[in-house]
Amino acid sequence: MTLLPVIEATACCAPLTRDAMTQSQADDLAKSLKAIADPARLRLISIIAASEGQEACVCDLTEPLEIGQPTVSHHLKVLTDAGFVTRSKRGTWAYYALVPGALDSLARLLVTA
Length: 113
Known about the structure:
Blueprint: H1 6-11, H2 23-36, H3 39-50, E1 55-57, H4 62-65, H5 69-81, E2 85-90, E3 93-98, H6 102-110
Antiparallel strand pairs: 1-3, 2-3
């Protein structure tokens, strides 16, 4: 499954309560919501957001979640593919950072005003 980056998936859409969504918009939004609708992924976003500079080394993400590195890497890939985080390689380690505005963009869709 290929997920669209959140910014692209939500930029065209009015809040859910203002205008009816097309099938394509609903599909794109559902993919983005599915990417964060997992407790481990929500915790990863939270940990990264709370880290200095809103970025964290993958080596610092396995212990707080108490799950193995391959599983953490899978969740990070889903978040990266969905456009919530970016990945940069430094030596042997991968660092993940929040995409500025990605969560804000998603939240704006849910506002009722």
